[in-house]
Known about the structure:
It is a single chain. By secondary structure, this protein is an alpha+beta fold. It has one domain (3-126): Transcriptional regulator MraZ domain (Chemotaxis protein chec). The protein is built from 6 helices and 8 strands. The strands form 2 sheets. The protein has a 6-stranded antiparallel sheet with strand order 1-7-8-4-3-5. It is globular and about 45 Å long.
Amino acid sequence: MQLIGEYPVSVDNKGRLRLPTALLRQLGEKASEEAAYEFVVNRGFEPCLTLYPKAVWDNISAKLSRLNRFNERNRAFVRSFYLGAYPLQTDSADRILLQKPLMDYAAIGEEAILVAMDDRIEIWSPAQYNRVAMADPNAFSDLANQVLGGGDDGAGSTDDDFFGMFK
Length: 167
């Protein structure tokens, strides 16, 4: 699954937001007209929410279930990851209902921005998202170099070169 795009949405006073049609199309067809899209939402690493299609969540949960729970770090991570997790499904108008504690965590009010990233969707308050989106381009360049291309001096080995996998 490769989800992409940014989608500003309105949030009603009950905490419901409609998932944009362009985003739903990327998720694929529902089993039937009456069927709902199923998700799990939880707290993101930053002050945002992460919306996982159910199949993606199930895959992550299966991996987490294999962690050694006798290890304190593993327990702490699993506990934090599941903190605030909640199952969701779309209603007949393709809306989802966000829980109040999750909305408070992400500072989501009357508006939100959905950011599709690979196999999941982040849900941001516009103010928080603008802080992230307005990051210094040089900081992004440095981050790209560290994550994708050979470290500080850019002289990484071709085995570690992210773009080498496209050759």
